[in-house]
Amino acid sequence: MNWLLAAIEPLLFIFISPLLAGWIKWVKCRLQNRRSPSLVQPYRDLAKLFRKTPVVANHASWLFEATPYIVFTSILLAVAIVPSIAAHLPTASIADVIALVGFLALGRFFLILAGMDIGTAFGGMGSSREATIASLAEPAMLMAVFTLAMSANTTNLSSAIDYVQDNGLVLRPSFIFALAGVVLVAIAETGRVPVDNPATHLELTMIHEAMILEYGGRHLALIEWAGQIRLMLFGVLIVNIFFPWGIAESLTLDALAIGLGAMVAKLMVLGLLLAISEMMLAKMRIFRVQDYLGFAYLLSLLGMLSHVILEVG
Amino acid sequence: MNELIDHPLDEQAILFIAALVIFTSFLMLAQKRLTSLVGVFAWQGFLLALATALSAHTQDIPHLYFSAALNLGLKAFLIPWMLIRLIAKFDMHREIEALLYPSITLTAAASLVLFSYYVVLPIEHLSTLATRNTIAVSLGVVLLGMLLMVTRRQAIAQVVGFMAIENGLFFAAVAATSGMPMVVEMGIAFDVLVAAIIFGVFFFHINSSIDSLDVDRLNRLNEMER
Fold it and tell me: What does the pLDDT look like over A215-231, one tens digit per residue?
């Protein structure tokens, strides 16, 4: 029963994730007084891409064709670790949050290689930019994770969620700083507006899109889908660690229904906030991204410092 | 062990504000514009006043309310307003100061905070107040204020650093010993006010003699450009 649930939860997760992307787009269009595409438009796009024959360049090596599958599998494994509807699934004890960061890095590493594999100028440019951002975002993410781990005395996500939930509402400066740091990192990692714009293919500014420019058909579909899952993964990570209330602690049907409802509601609110912030901000210059990520690192570091100085002593 | 969860909510709030105070110190180090620097300084003053009022509430010391009000009036409104007016008068509100090595400065700032934590560790055991953990934060604010003075060339930014040092000392007094005696506190407050006014006069002197507020140019001994 537990294992069945542990298999169903990631599947449900990856099938909901295009809906979140659709929801964010819907809110954004509404806020800009535009007519929005339907909420299920991302599904239609994916279905269209899956039906098309993928075209691969002559010079592509096996790496280019394998990458979409590696990216998708690594994000799927990452999803299995994160408690979304219920805590304490058997998969949660397999790996901890550091492994999660590792899975995300694995997918990104192969995407960077694939970007350079074909040898087009855009691919290399996108890869180098992605590598720059990733190398700055990862320490900030890990620092925030360590802050959490030091408070909860564990790197296991389910136990950390238990810890936050058991203590009730505590004003923790370290958590607030870590939350702010993780939000900034999540925006950079999922390629949302001030760092990258997912809606454009403008040559000089794109980061993620430049790497996958040569992909088509089901390869592109897998990468796009992995991107949507990654967005939802960060969303779930943020809402479930810092606001875990509602997550199913026991595996009864009622608790699971509440857990699903709570997760959807929290993600809808988060999507709303993301859409609003994307409305207000303009994309920043690529050379300012390092300042932005430096700030994220500073926030995470302050979280760690305030934990050591103010919360334990 | 003195865990955070054991504290009541208002003491948690003081600790939280302490974290925000050190955060504003970091923000000040990263500000390029003088007006936003003064703005962050005003926020720090506001947070300090809030922390003081909260500790007046938790420790039930009514005279701290008075010093909170004094602090709010002086450091959150009056001195920032005077500095902003000076900036406008010298026509510097559009000026952007290129920071020398911003990332190294911030790393140095983080290590200074760690350093102050280790320095304060033995002192903390002498105090019995629940908020004694904030002594390290206030020492950190003092050191970051000094770092601000060291890294900046604009005279106004250095004055803001000086005022931030005073903020740190005030915070230490509130957090560690439930506030200084009233007379001392008022004396310091007016000292700071007078200092702000005198600095304003100095700015005019510096500006009239070297035609700039960049204090690096004071290093030059001769008046002629070589």
Answer: 989 999 999 999 999 99
Contact A313 B19 (CB under 8 A): no
User: Span B195-202, mean pLDDT?
Assistant: 88
Residue A9 included in any domain: yes
| Pick from A108, A109, A78, A76: nearest CA to A96 | A78
Tokens found for residue B36: 């936003």
A152-206, pLDDT tens digit by residue? 888 888 888 888 888 877 778 889 999 999 999 999 999 888 888 877 777 677 8
Domain of A277 in residue numbering reads as 2-136+153-164+206-281
Inform me whether the pLDDT recorded for B61 exceeds 90: no
Assigned domain for A287 exists:
no
Q: Classify the complex by whether its ipTM is higher than 0.85, answering yes or no.
A: no
Q: How high is the pLDDT of residue B1?
A: 37
**Is there a domain that residue B181 lies in?**
yes
Closest to B55 in 3D by CA, of B47, B64, B63, B46? B64
| Residues of chain B contacting residue A176, judged by C-beta atoms under 8 Å apart | 16, 19
Reduced to 3 states (helix: H, G, I; strand: E, B; else coil), residue A214 is coil
Nearest to A8 by CA among A128, A104, A91, A64: A91
Cα separation, A51 vs A139, in Å, equals 39
A&B contacts, CB < 8 Å: 69
Averaged pLDDT for residues A282-286: 86
Q: Is A199 on the interface with B (CB under 8 A)?
A: no
Smallest CA–CA distance, residue B124 to chain A, in Å, is 9
- Residue corresponding to tokens 């035609």: B211
Contact call for residues B139 and B172 (beta carbons, < 8 A): yes
Q: Which residue, among A136, A171, A287, would best test binding to B if mutated, counting the most B CBs under 10 Å from its CB?
A: A171
Q: State the smallest CA–CA distance between residue B61 and chain A in angstroms.
A: 23
Q: Provide the terminal-to-terminal Cα distance of chain B, rounded to the nearest Å.
A: 64
**Main-chain dihedrals φ then ψ at residue A141, nearest 5 degrees:** -60, -45
Tally of domains within chain B: 1
pLDDT of residue A313: 58
Instruction: Report angle CA A208, A213, A214 to the nearest 5 degrees.
Output: 140
Q: Is residue B50 part of a domain?
A: yes
CA-based nearest distance A34→chain B, Å: 36
What is the distance between the alpha carbons of residues B128 and B60, in angstroms, rounded to a whole number?
Answer: 15
Residue A46 lies in a domain: yes
> Whose structure tokens read 């601000």?
B148
Instruction: Report if residue B225 sits inside a domain.
Output: no
Domain with B114, as residue range(s), is: 4-217
Is residue B222 assigned to a domain?
Answer: no
Q: DSSP letter at B5?
A: G
Task: Tell whether A113 is covered by a domain.
Answer: yes
Full-model pTM: 0.88
Cα separation, A74 vs A216, whole angstroms = 20
What distance in Å separates the CA atoms of residue A69 and residue A215, rounded to the nearest whole number?
13
Average pLDDT, rounded, for chain A: 89
Total domains present in chain A: 1
